[in-house]
Amino acid sequence: MIKHLLSMQDLRSKEIETILNDAVKLKQKTKKEETHEVLRGKTLAMIFAKPSTRTRVSFEVAMTQLGAHAIYLGWNDLQLGRGETIADTARTLSRYVDVITARLFKHLDIVELARYSSVPVINALTDLHHPCQTLADLLTIQEHKGKLKGLKMAWVGDGNNVCNSLMLGCTLVGADISLACPKGYEPPTELVKQARANARESGSKVEIVAEPERAVLKSDVVYTDVFVSMGQEAEANQKLKRFLPKYQVNKALLNHAKSDAIVLHCLPWKPGQEITKDIAYSPQCVAFDQAENRLHVVKSVLTFLL
């Protein structure tokens, strides 16, 4: 059976543990400048319908450090941009490469890509899920807190793809998560149900509230993201009115968290909107640790799937 990574639900808790532990080892090898070219001769196809800094660079550098090769394919570089079906693209690329990653607008598109691919497919972001980001988040939290199980995570802001994956990931590893989202901007009901099913298995909790202070209360980790995601520019004014100032991560809000709480953000950010500049660039915020850990997690995911 080919294993894909389309959402956090494609992983069991033990598999997440394996990926994180291997990411730690790969990170140590990188720091010591030890070679770890375990995928020598392998090729990754990278399909990007949406541009990115961290995603593209982390995947390309990961393949280089693993002794492998990556091919960047913008949507219009492929026949997809001229009407070829996703199914035929998957069938064709599978004859050339060993693994495919795709950063797409619609989650259904990556599901179709995986359905017709004969090699592993990795979700590098869709409108519903961002599993590689969540794995990097979990690694970062584990580094700073020494564990995952039993911690309280707080999400403040839009119930977007990063939120969805974090909610699933936390409940798979046994961490509690409390989400503060404006009414109408909560995560999809079906994903909340799945997270609560995970929580029953792992002994954690999922809470969705309207008040950020309640979500953040005694939390170990506070996470936020931009209020206006790529492709939502037309909604910018409407969303900013709904989110500001109530859902901004600032010093006053963080006073409700534990004194040693860390702040996460997947980047890029808009200091002054979802997070204040003094918090964004403070020692409490570990956003650039997260960004670095994308590289090591991606290396671990690639070796895990291959």
Protein model, in words:
With 306 residues, the chain is an alpha/beta fold. It folds into 2 domains: 8-130 and 291-305, Aspartate/ornithine carbamoyltransferase (Rossmann fold, 3-Layer(aba) Sandwich), CATH 3.40.50; 132-286, Rossmann fold. The chain is built from 12 helices and 9 strands. It has helices at 13-31, 54-65, 86-93, 107-116, 131-145, 161-173, 189-202, 212-216, 236-243, 251-254, 277-280, 287-305; strands at 43-48, 69-74, 99-103, 121-125, 152-156, 176-180, 206-209, 221-224, 262-265. The strands form 2 sheets. It has a 5-stranded parallel β-sheet with strand order 7-6-5-8-9. Helix 4 links the parallel strand 3 and strand 4 (121-125). The mean pLDDT is 96.
Provide keyphrases for this structure:
alpha/beta, Rossmann fold, 2 domains, 306 residues
Largest sheet: 5 strands, parallel
Q: Give the number of domains.
A: 2
Label the overall shape: globular
The beta-strand count equals 9
Summarize the amount of helix as a percent range. Answer: 40-55%
* Uncertain parts: none
Distance between the termini: 12 Å
Alpha-beta classification: alpha/beta
Could you tell me the mean pLDDT? 96
What is the CATH class name of the largest domain?
Alpha Beta
State which percent range the strand residues make up: 5-15%
CATH architecture of the largest domain: 3-Layer(aba) Sandwich
- The number of distinct helices, counting runs of at least 4 residues, comes to 12
Radius of gyration: 19 Å
